[in-house]
Amino acid sequence: xxxxxxxxxxxxxxxxxxxxxxxxxxxxxxxxxxxxxxxxxxxxxxxxxxxxxxxxxxxxxxxxxxxxxxxxxxxxxxxxxxxxxxxxxxxxxxxxxxxxxxxxxxxxxxxxxxxxxxxxxxxxxxxxxxxxxxxxxxxxxxxxxxxxxxxxxxxxxxxxxxxxxxxxxxxxxxxxxxxxxxxxxxxxxxxxxxxxxxxx
Amino acid sequence: xxxxxxxxxxxxxxxxxxxxxxxxxxxxxxxxxxxxxxxxxxxxxxxxxxxxxxxxxxxxxxxxxxxxxxxxxxxxxxxxxxxxxxxxxxxxxxxxxxxxxxxxxxxxxxxxxxxxxxxxxxxxxxxxxxxxxxxxxxxxxxxxxxxxxxxxxxxxxxxxxxxxxxxxxxxxxx
Lengths: 200, 174
Description:
The complex is a heterodimer. Chain A is of the alpha/beta class. Chain A has a single domain, classed as Rossmann fold (3-Layer(aba) Sandwich), CATH 3.40.50. Chain A has helices at residues 15-24, 38-45, 62-72, 84-89, 92-100, 131-138, 149-160, 185-195, and strands at 31-34, 52-54, 78-83, 105-111, 114-115, 121-122, 142-145, 166-171. A six-stranded parallel beta sheet of chain A has the order 2-1-3-4-8-7, sandwiched between helices. The longest helix of chain A has 12 residues, at 149-160. The N and C termini of chain A lie far apart (44 Å). By secondary structure, chain B is α/β, with parallel strands linked by helices. Chain B contains eight helices and six strands, in the order αβαβαβααβαβαβα. Chain B has a six-stranded parallel beta sheet with strand order 2-1-3-4-6-5, with helices on both faces. In chain B, α1 packs parallel to α7. The N and C termini of chain B lie far apart (37 Å). Chain A binds chain B through residues 31, 33, 53, 55-73, 76, 90, 92-93, 95-96, 99-100, 185-186, 188-189, 192-193, 196-198, 200, and chain B through 22, 45, 47-51, 53-67, 69, 83-84, 86-88, 91-94, 155.
């Protein structure tokens, strides 16, 4: 049960496997904003949907970008994929999301307790910070740890119905991303806008 | 073009005329009349962000979703955004409209503000981000209107630095 799942008893899962489970549930051209690094790499590896945006720099701004898309396109659901280190860099954005209450925004947080791409240094979430508790404290009532893969699927399905904002955190292992993104920001941005039906 | 309007009335009207619906700000005392007026006008979606780079991320997402956006910040806030500019807004060609209420000059009383102010134009110039320092209400509407159109047409951000000569600035109380 999600109500009793905590950072300490949640199953350690795999980011790529969960990313595929997420994209497998996307049936309505939902926008997905992939955060810098491995969140992006596994999103790319799961297949390049036209509604995917891959953030190449600006660590911490995944959720703000997703929030902006959600404001501009209230009828489209938007999913942000963010890592623990990145979220810790920009925790204030959770308070902004809670203040605005966009019903079409879902935030997925991959928490492996390390700054994986820079050499595996421990993040504060490895020993002290509980990102779901932080999100709840920021005012995002619908925040939960995924207990296991099946629970993750259920939480994602419920979030995609709307009524959010929702934050779902998953403890993940330290396996690196399975692919590498294209690194042309203009092409990524133009492709994403076309995928959202925006001319310019 | 100003017709006796205050600077904040000109900016509000020019944003509206250019269909800039989203305004995200980190508050500043000088901006207070503009922020109040934007909140009072249902044309706008407006709210505070907790940090200036967060505001830039939000307007970036909104632009990609088809909504034009502006950010408002103080000079010291500008000091927090070079990474967001250099690694997101500029390389992704986002026409973010950045309004900065200028502190650190023309009577500044806080050395910290004065130092951050000195970094602002060199950062913008080094990134080749168009920037205008606006000192007069009779030029304000023209500069903002034309620059918004240029930003959208050329897919590039623009920064409007609002001088104390325009806004009155913040005055040393003692």
